[in-house]
Amino acid sequence: MNWNKKILNALCPLFILPVLAISLFLVSCEPSLTLPQEPQDPTLQYEVHIPTMSLDSVFVRVKIDNWPKGDSIRLLAPPIYADNPPLVQTGQNFCHAQVLDSLNNPIPFHSDSFVVGEIKSLVIHAPYTKKAIVEYYVKFNYKADDAYYYMPVPFIGEHTGYLQGSYLFMIPYFFSGTAHIWRDPIPLTVSYALGNEVKIFGDSPNKAEFATTYQLMFSTSALLKQSVVSTQLLFEGTAANQKYRCVNIDVNKTFSQPLLNTVENSFKTLLDDLIPKFGTLSGPPVTIITGINNKIGLEGMYAFNCKDFHENDPNGTTAICLAHEVVHAWVGIRVGDYQDPWWKEGTTSYLGLLLPKKNGLSTLPTVTNTLLDSLAGTGNASTYALSDPVIRSILFSGKDIGHLVYGKGAQVSMLLDRKIRESTKGAVTLISILSEFLKEFDGKSFYRNEYVTYLNTKGLCDVSDIFSTYVDRPGPIPASVLRDNFNALLSSGAFGDTLQ
Ligand SMILES: [Zn+2]
């Protein structure tokens, strides 16, 4: 409710005067009324300037409004860690920064560093001002080193390019605690000033919207020079009212038409299953970016990466990659967690195995490889509990934490799914509960008790014991427990009709 109306409504019953007199009184008094003002939320608008594909740098302007009164301006500069580590820089990549006030006068600032995970980010400090503009250049001088050899590398080349938010955007540093920094809601918009020949596939070029800085870190886009669009845009279409497209950012890689047909049909099948449950993904067509590497995919807000497609793929690893990364659009990107660093990858790992198998795009041995893995002798996978907060910053450190989070996390999701299905005689599943949960928390993050309460209420059971035994304690889930749960799900048809 508007503050002015609220106070005037409260005042009116006090005056027993002719209508005209009341009007005159209010009109004459209005200038002297001092009405309390609600503080307005801060907003950040980003402009990314990419004039041509021949440059190896981009210019970013951030318009800040309604910075919280009394607080100095604090911004984290790229590259920024947000669960997934950015690559180590080779030379200076963030440069020529300046902070301006609303009259375009430079504001002096200083910087220090902030370490999260294995990444040291710069923090820019400037005196308080309600409105400010920050400008800087970003050069993409990255290379994948041994530790992160599998991570996609941002670049702008002659014909194609690849952008990722964690390398591009400064973000406000309002909060303490890693999860709060990335996941507390703050509305952000990004627009792109592109040269005539530069086309973007991922974020909307006009106004891409993000509800948290975590979403912004996972802004993912391919760039194509206009002259290569016809060869690099591999396919596009609609499934379940969801528009999609696929872009190849490696001009040296080609894929046969039969292979592309297979990949597109797999993706359509997955969308036909997912979209009615989780809802349409807002914004431009959801974009698959391939040509990144041969090993992994990487999730994103409006686009995601899929490893290169292969003719010889009997186990359906491409379908698994597509399922895993598109599920992340809801699980982890649009909805996040504050307390369970395993939830994003563990849940997605389980659904990324179940959905392709259920839809005939994968095989049973591929599923059992993860869901029945004993994790025996895997070192740190047995050392840490899934809920250990340290996991968030060492997930991809090469200490075998991925085995724990993706493997045991998927197994915990399997146990939850089995318990929910059995207590509801198959009427409710983990996916059906998630479909409601994710809509309720869209653009937000949740705490453990909110998730567990949701599972208990909708699943007509108590899943607390699964969390206390297998999430909060280290060590593998006994093989007999895994086998029992898997067989129960298999015989109930959770993995489809074909038992192979
Ligand atoms: Zn993932």
Ordered list of secondary-structure elements with their pairings:
Elements: H1 3-11, H2 19-29, E1 43-50, E2 57-65, E3 73-76, E4 94-100, E5 106-107, E6 110-116, E7 119-126, E8 132-139, E9 155-156, E10 160-164, E11 171-172, H3 178-183, E12 185-194, E13 198-201, E14 208-212, H4 213-217, E15 220-225, H5 229-232, E16 233-239, E17 242-248, H6 257-278, E18 286-290, E19 303-305, H7 317-328, E20 336-337, H8 343-358, H9 364-371, H10 380-383, H11 391-394, H12 401-423, H13 430-440, E21 445-446, H14 448-459, H15 464-471, H16 479-491
Parallel strand pairs: 1-12, 17-18, 18-19, 20-21
Antiparallel strand pairs: 1-2, 2-8, 3-7, 3-11, 4-5, 4-8, 6-7, 9-10, 10-15, 12-14, 13-15, 16-17
Helix pairs in contact: 6-7, 7-8, 8-9, 8-12, 12-14, 12-15, 12-16
The structure holds zinc ion.
Zinc ion (ZN) is lined by residues 299, 324, 328, 345, 348.
List the main descriptive attributes of the protein structure presented here.
globular, single chain, Neutral Protease, domain 2, disordered N terminus, Immunoglobulin-like, 500 residues, 34% helix, 16 helices, 3 domains, seven-stranded mixed beta sheet, four-stranded antiparallel beta sheet, binds zinc ion, 23% strand, alpha+beta
